[in-house]
Amino acid sequence: MPVNTASLTELLVTLVDIPSVTGTELQIADWITHRLATAARGEVIRHGLSIVWRAPRMGRPLIVLAGHTDTVPAQGNATARLEDGRLYGLGTTDMKAGDAVMLALADALDPDALRFDVAMVFYDGEEGPHEKNGLKRVLNDSPWLREANLAVILEPTDGALEMGCNGMVNVEVRVPGVSAHSARPWQGKNAIAEGVDWLREITKVPVKSHIVQGLEFRETLQVTKLRAGTARNVVPAEMKANLNHRFPPGRTVEQAIAGLRALVPEGFAFDVVDSGPPGDVCLEHAEVQRFLRMSGAKVAAKQGWTDVARFTAAGIPAFNYGPGLPDLCHRADEYCPVDNLGQVYENLSAFLTREGA
Q: Using an 8 Å Cβ cutoff, are 181 and 282 in contact?
């Protein structure tokens, strides 16, 4: 069947209507496995809830396309709905639109006509804790993927080429207090009162701009969770705050953690919950420049964390390029413009097959 906007939209509807909240990806993994085994020419390798498809090997440079299959929980948007050229629904933009493009490429491309040997990774667990990300397992279990010359992550970029990605750290800060009956607060120490001045300051940390290879990355620090107290009539003995920190390429996780620690009083407990390094900016790579010339895509920095970081840490140049809209990730009104599906498909198809440019 020819690939066009209508067929890509139909494929995306099918993917969206298969529930795959992080931890529940079995059904979509089985569906993708069957689709690749019956419609695509190549080898299908299963890694638990992740799938690798490999086109026939011909000794050419290897390129990897990758996309995660899991989503955040639904917000009344569990099923797909097409309206005015937009496909609404959970995962439409983040990032089943990218998965749909990958599947269509696997179906339609003639392996004999490609400039590269091609592999595709559909992986689980990206929206959950960093250590449970399925791509980590896949790269360990299929070490030949680490020989790739280039990786393209089809995360939402609205058809732009987004380079690198910010690193991230989540830290739990615990402010100590002493519990007491709320009718006799002088017998205790209210953890909220102990931490309120610090909270006031930490929530005012400004967004900072950093330029890397001409691209602007924004460093942020946000309190994303706050909890205290066990009952309405008990002075809270502890207040817990989660700090979510995003930091630019060129800084290590260890440096980012040290910078956060300097912002937290010594008497407060400080525990790193989750972290991921930033992704390198590979703008000067010859194949990245070739893709830019062929596609005419605009170039920007990737503000969120993506698995570009995992690939560049393994020494594989990588960039983000996908049909979804980054500003709509994790929102109840998430959608993908269906025209973006065709645009991204055509540009990747041309890049994988055509000489020159």
A: no
Predicted confidence at residue 130, as pLDDT, reads: 83
pLDDT of residue 254: 97
Q: Is the pLDDT of residue 169 over 90?
A: yes
Among candidate residues 126, 158, 238, 307, the one labeled active-site is 126
**Is residue 126 annotated as a catalytic residue, yes or no?**
yes
Entry pTM: 0.90
Q: Give CATH 3.40.630.10 domain extents, the chain.
A: 5-165+279-353
Q: How far apart are alpha carbons 281 and 319 in whole angstroms?
A: 8
- CATH second-level architecture of 5-165+279-353? 3-Layer(aba) Sandwich (3.40)
Confidence (pLDDT) at 356: 53
Q: pLDDT at position 141, please?
A: 94
Residue with token string 């080429």 = 161
Question: Annotated catalytic, 70?
Answer: yes
CA atoms of 55 and 114, how far apart (whole Å): 10
Question: What dotted CATH number matches 167-276?
Answer: 3.30.70.360
Nearest of 166, 291, 273, 163 to residue 224 by alpha carbon: 273
| Strand 269-276 to 167-176 pairing | antiparallel
Of 120, 101, 100, the closest CA to residue 16 belongs to: 100
Q: Where exactly does CATH 3.30.70.360 map onto the chain? A: 167-276
How far is residue 41's CA from residue 38's CA, in Å, rounded to a whole number?
A: 8
How far are the Cα atoms of 27, 129, 253, 272 from residue 260, in angstroms, in the given order? 40, 20, 11, 10
The string of pLDDT tens digits covering residues 209-242 is 999 999 999 999 999 999 999 999 999 999 999 9
- Catalytic entry in 70, 94, 99, 155: 70
Q: CA–CA separation, 330 vs 139, rounded Å?
A: 26
